[in-house]
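User: I'm writing a short report section on ligand binding and want a predicted complex to refer to. Could you take this sequence and coenzyme A and write out the structure as tokens? A short remark afterwards would be nice.
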Amino acid sequence: MVLQFRETQPSEWRHGSFVVSTDRERLDVPKLLAMLRDTYWASDLEHERLVQAIEASLTFGLYADSGSLVGFCRVITDGAMFAYLRDVIIDAAYRRQGLGSLLTDTVLHHPALANVHYWLLATRDAHDVYKKFGFKPLENPGLYMVRRTTETPFQTADSGSPAADPTRHG
Ligand SMILES: CC(C)(COP(=O)(O)OP(=O)(O)OC[C@H]1O[C@@H](n2cnc3c(N)ncnc32)[C@H](O)[C@@H]1OP(=O)(O)O)[C@@H](O)C(=O)NCCC(=O)NCCS
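Assistant: Sure. The structure tokens for the complex follow:
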């Protein structure tokens, strides 16, 4: 069973010459995989793991006028109390022109997430992107625990073993 928080239908917002869309079907998965594999947290990401993560998340694709994918992030949420923002990525050629902020702003204003009052994310060096939206360092990190499993290949439900490593950050 795939856990997922679904919109009744995909949403789309135009910002100048860019469009943000929650339509999973529109995502260029091979390009997204290449972009994510270039990050510090997902260099070994498998195609199948990404596909399942997309299926079980509220995804936000950022598209240039040409229609090509230039940014992405996804939200894992119950739509009421808690949301985890992760895999935020802007194509290297499009960075430092406000698109990461635009994407984050769009996520935080999604009507289906209006009730969420607890957001979490992890970042190594992009704190400034999120600070202006009210994200702060954990006040009491000792309250939090993380479980990481050993690095094992992603396995589908059909293969009879549970999916590995659900807790890596990025
Ligand atoms: C982090 C990332 C998504 C930011 O996207 P972006 O479009 O370049 O961000 P913006 O142009 O909206 O920048 C927003 C602010 O954060 C700062 N900033 C952007 N990226 C930063 C980084 N990597 N480190 C520190 N500060 C950063 C900018 O200076 C800017 O500040 P300003 O508005 O006061 O000028 C993008 O650099 C990226 O994809 N990096 C690789 C993947 C990554 O690290 N993702 C974050 C995981 S949580």
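A remark for your report: Residues 99-108 form the longest helix (10 residues). DSSP finds four helices and six strands in the chain.
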